[in-house]
Amino acid sequence: MDDISNSASAPPPHYPTPPPVIAPSAPPTPPRKGCGSRIFLWVVVLLFLLSLLGNVAQFLGGLVPGPARHSHAGGPRIEESVMEDNDAAEKIAVVDVSGIISSHLGAQSGSSQVELIRAELKEASEDVKVKAVVLRVDSPGGEVLASDEINRAIAAFQKKSGKPVVASMGNLAASGGYYISVPCRWIVANEMTLTGSIGVIMHTYNYRGLMDKVGVAPLVFKSGKHKDMLSGERMPGDIPDDERPMVQALIDETYGQFKHIVRQGRADAFKQNDGAGKALSDDWEDYADGRILSGRQALESGFVDQLGNFQVAVDAAKHIAGIKNADLVQYQERYDLGDFLRLFNRTQTPAIKVDLGMDGLKIESGQLYFLAPTSLR
Asked: Which pTM was predicted?
């Protein structure tokens, strides 16, 4: 019994404390990938889908009558947009010519200003609802050849389609800007419009004196004495005496063509208008010496038919076309995904432009221009 009582009163055996259970650590979170590449991918996919939907809509638009949306092979792709909806059955197309008239290709579209205007006139010619065109001009002029091609395109459009073109002159419609307005059936100018400047200019520099100061001497090999005509590297004494008359003869020939275009264009318009417009005054050539004219002065000399703004030109277009009401439409160059992607395929180094608040006029040496002197600054 003593043994049993002794054993019952004895303390329980001591067991060592077990080590703490250490839970396994969570696996490291993988670094999140940047979302920039995903956004770019989604943008590309979205643009592709939009382009695809646009092509489908263009195809269906060719099957169902509706607003024009055309693409000419070998030329600018243009589409029609409504400028002013008057709920009319007929339309008047507005063609804008602004800035320097040039045959240079556009940086994005790859089409020149001349090609774009031709495409717009072609669109207006093929659309039976278009009854007239308003040529809205705000230009100091530009290249001789580009101005002449636009002039011929307007004359051919009127002759082929029978639809009148009314010129609406803005702030400036001088030199080449007037040259492209001359074939129009009717010309409207604002009283404050600067127009005229009928003439030709060729511009170059002689920088041989500067070359001599910095120690640069030209080395020229040529097949004839006039092969380096208008070169700025020659000493003034090395310029042949007969070179200036040769250049002046070229200027005079182009100037004579300008006056012929003015005389013929204004005479044809006056005849077609049955005397309703203004005929050239007897002394109009006295004002065709390169001087700038106001709209009122141009009216007095017969260079324009009427004073007024753009709305006056639209009303004149409706009157000549014999319609009472019309929607105003414009044609815009159309871009798709291919044009966007071409921006990424350019290998040349992008140019950096510093905006100083003014843009220099790009006058090429030896190039003939119908250009107002107010733009030579």
From this structure: 0.74
